[in-house]
Amino acid sequence: MANTTNDYKKSANGLASDLAYKAHESKNQLSQMAYDSGEKIGSVASDFASSAMDTVRYSQEYVKKNPYKGVAIAATAGIFAGTVLSSLMRGRRRD
Hints:
97% of the residues lie in helices and 0% in strands. The chain is mainly alpha-helical.
C-alpha cells in the first residue's frame, strides 16, 4: 500500500512538473507573439507615416508649380467636405 501511495505521489509530481513546464513554454510563446506583433505594427505605422509624408511633399511641390490649380482643388475639396458634413448633421438632427 505504501508503495502505491509513493507511486501516486511520483506520478502527481511528474504531472505537476509537466504542467509547469508547458505553462512556462506557453508564456514564452505568447511573449514572442506579442513582440512580433508589436514589430509588425511598428513597421506598418512607419510605412504609413513615410507614405503620408511623401504625399504631403508631392502635394506641396504640385501647388508650388500650379498655384491656381492647387487653390481650385482645395476649394473643391472644401465644398465637398462641407456638403457631406452638412448632410450628415441634418440627418442626425432628424433622428
